[in-house]
Amino acid sequence: MSNFIRVALAAFLLSGCTFAKSQSMPYKAWRLGFSAPAYMEVWIESADVVDIQEQLYSRAMSGTASILTPPNNSGDPRGWPKRAGWGKGKYVTGADLPKQIYVRWQSLVEPQTYQMVINIPEATREIMRKGEKVFCSADGQWITGYREAIGIRLVPGGIAKVWVTGPCMTPIEVTTVQAVIDPRGPYEGKSGGHHRPLSAVSKAYVEKFGVPYDSWK
Questions:
Q1: Which of 41, 71, 94, 111 is the most buried (most CB within 10 A)?
Q2: Is 175 inside any structural domain?
Q3: How far apart are CA 149 and CA 136, in angstroms?
Q4: What is the DSSP string of 50-92?
């Protein structure tokens, strides 16, 4: 675990209190997922979660984010999605709803390594607990839906936008976070400054069009 996360955890866990384990959500697990704009590849070194029971779930997610890389530069990475998706990820099994999410990732098109803390307020958790009657067009049925997923979109420049969403539910944007550069570089300084390689198709797009930083402001 990086010093960045250790410091944040120390501040969060100063009380040293323990709580009885009892999940506060109306479903078994919530999902954490990540996405990135077309061609703007990222590698998530680690996404660690502290839930509202003050339990730490290290590497709740790592690896690649959901991304489109169509050939012939036919994709468009500019701007934020009108309807955010779930992203690539997994359910944080055994965890209660999150209080903080720590993310360290490589932005491969720059290349740069970023780290951030996403604070999840009670208002967001209330949205995740609230059930709504919603019509699912895929199967033509009304269900009680929950926004049981947190989707995080990572873009160059270290900006992250966060939504909560669920099956057949309209995503709700909850926050935007500006990450900081990790001065140690990729893999906490253990790779000699070498980031993961950018794919050929993404490299071709960036070489021709550059990185549209202004579209995410």
A1: 41
A2: yes
A3: 17
A4: EETT--EEEEEEEEEPB----STT-----S--SS----EEEE-
Do residues 5 and 35 touch, judged by C-beta distance below 8 A?
no
Q: Is residue 96 part of a domain?
A: yes
- For the chain, what is the domain count? 1
User: Closest by alpha carbon to 32, among 175, 205, 148?
Assistant: 148
Q: Does residue 17 lie in a domain region?
A: no
- The secondary structure of residue 184, as a DSSP letter, is T
Query: By residue range, what is the domain housing residue 180?
Result: 24-216
